[in-house]
Design a protein that fits this description.
Length: 367
């Protein structure tokens, strides 16, 4: 970056110094002295001048590309912040969903959509010490999500550290891509709660990632801060969920300027030992479980039987909050059947009119 700037300065201004020293008289003499040569050599001089101009532009363009990561929002104090990237918004099974022949997936089998990826958040943080990346979750879509994160951050040769929430396939199965059959990674830092860590260490194929050194496992502790990148920390928070193989956590992600709550999977809010509204007050934004919109999506079964908060339940629970609190909510982890995956649906409009948001792939949020 520094080199580019030097080149720009050299090629644009270097030749002007001696002329300035000689003043206008010298300029006139010099012009008439070289005019006949300029006419004779016009086919050489003009293209040279043109390419010098273009080189100047290129140096500036390259400069912009290199300096863009971490500067996603222009203006104000948030320039130079670490950036949170939305890498996926779907429930574990993704879309198109295996075995689904309904309108929600039928066309996606023919034309897969680039904005339908399983739930994941990325972090990029660029400081003078270098660029760092992190991913929350390692989903079955991790290949394209890693590419998206590296490209958005301009850090194409950096591997992220990985922070996991729980051992359901949509949230950790992407780890398999780090093994010798695919990436053959070395020492990727993976963070999991103690029971989850023990599960990974003692069950194939995950134990092979450990024994071959593709990953290095780190234990998380509930409610204890862990360093994500130089300027970003996270606090894992236990949440109720089907815990067959591991604990389930959400994260409070803390940047130097802003903080975000991330709870992709949770049983009903009433079963949590915390108050959602109070947790919301502690952060600037919250990505929350929105697996299903309402009961019509699950065959009008009793909503209390379904171990997720329906979007209509979450909206009703928070309806008394003021508009700025409600606007913090970004619904995420949407099932392939959720009508809010389409921004032209009645349900989607209903969510926006109630003052809430639906998370969108490729959104960037400075922390
Ligand atoms: Zn899930
Ligand atoms: Zn479907
Ligand atoms: Zn789950």
């Amino acid at each position: 970056m520094v080199e580019s700037k030097v080149l720009v300065r050299d090629c644009q201004f270097g030749a002007s110094c001696t002329l300035r020293e000689h003043g206008w008289h010298g300029l006139r003499i010099a012009f008439f002295a070289i005019f006949p040569f300029m006419v004779r050599l016009r086919f050489v001089i003009l293209p040279c001048m043109l390419s010098m101009l273009l080189m100047g532009c290129n140096h500036r363009a390259a400069d912009n590309v290199v300096s863009s990561p971490g500067h996603a929002l222009k203006g104000g104090v948030l320039q130079n912040s670490p950036v949170l990237h939305v890498l996926g918004t779907l429930q574990d099974g993704g879309a198109p969903h295996m075995g689904c022949d309904r309108p929600c997936c039928r066309n996606l089998f023919l034309r897969p959509a680039t904005d339908r990826k399983v739930v994941s958040l990325g972090i990029s943080d660029e400081t003078e010490a270098g660029g760092e990346l992190a991913m929350f979750e390692a989903t079955p879509d991790v290949a394209s999500q890693l590419h998206a994160l590296q490209s958005a951050a301009g850090l194409t040769d950096v591997l992220p550290s990985i922070f996991l929430t729980h051992a359901h396939i949509g949230h950790y199965a992407g780890l398999m891509n780090l093994g010798r059959e695919v990436l053959g990674a070395a020492g990727v830092q993976v963070y999991a709660m103690p029971r989850f860590r023990a599960f990974l260490e003692s069950n194939g194929p995950w134990d092979q990632l450990v024994s071959l050194g593709n990953v290095e496992l780190n234990s998380l502790q509930a409610d204890s801060l862990v360093q994500v990148t130089k300027r970003v920390q996270a606090r894992p928070i236990l949440v109720p969920h089907r815990d067959e193989y591991s604990e389930t956590v959400g994260y409070r992600i803390l940047g130097p300027n802003r903080s975000v709550l991330f709870i992709p999977d949770i049983n009903k809010w009433g079963l949590w030992d915390r108050d959602l509204a109070k947790e919301l007050a502690l952060v600037d934004r919250a990505y929350l479980d929105a697996t299903f919109f309402d009961a019509s999506e699950v065959g009008n079964r009793d909503m209390s039987e379904i171990p997720h908060p329906f979007m209509v339940e979450t909206m009703a629970l928070l309806s008394e909050l003021n508009a700025s609190e409600r606007a913090k909510i970004q619904f995420i982890h949407l099932n392939h059947t959720n009508p809010c995956l389409s921004d032209t649906s009645v349900a989607y409009r209903q969510v926006l009119e109630a003052g809430f948001q639906v998370a969108r792939m490729h959104d960037e949020y400075p922390l």
